[in-house]
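Notes from the 1:1 (GR / supervisor)

We went over the backlog. Supervisor wanted to see one worked example end to end before approving the batch request, so GR pasted a single chain during the call. The sequence is below; no edits were made to it. Supervisor asked that the structure be written out right there so they could see what the output format looks like.
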Amino acid sequence: MNIIEIFTKSLVLIFSLDRDLWEIILLSLYVSITALIFASIFGLLIGYYLAIKNFFLKNFILIILNSLMGIPPVVVGLIVYFMFASGGPLGVLQLLYSPTAMIVAQIIIIFPIVTSLSHEIFDQNWREYKDQLRSINMTFFGVLFIISKHSYFLVITALLSAFGRAISEVGAVMIVGGNINHFTRVMTTAISLETRMGNLEYAMALGIVLILLTVLIYSLVYILNKRKI
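Structure output shown during the call:
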């Protein structure tokens, strides 16, 4: 089977709404979007707090957060595995090899990205407008709303970048999810498995969807950055 035949069959799989294929795609989106929501809630708040407050060890925390932006996903997978394994501190929850464990792993991966990037955004705006904001005696969350509204292009860009990292991750979700069919199989792990099994049209179909999602995400990032400029 040549590349043209494989590509054609992969398109047929996508547009024929193959049930198994779209189940994998939807699970991938569910896991990554859920992880992004939780990472964003805590990441944006902590990034904002670090931007407007000065305290002991603040610089140390920022160094750690920036360093963790490049943490290898397989290491995160190993940490989460030990947390949820039967002998681990959270083993009683029995979450290993479940979508929940995959979400936790992705939260850990993208949380430093959201926090570090949002800190840079909020810190820049706080330095520029802190005198005006202090003069009107705004509340903690009031300042957060104003700064977020002023720089929402950059905030959305940071969140899209984090989502792109999550949706394309394979190492951690393979370790903690187990790549179980109809339960924890996502696009990246399915591509790896189907390629090894020789189901190239299936792997390419998933690869096309993943590439299109990645292109869409980073196109939005580019457009938002251009609009901000």
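Supervisor's comment: The chain has a mean pLDDT of 89.
Batch request approved.
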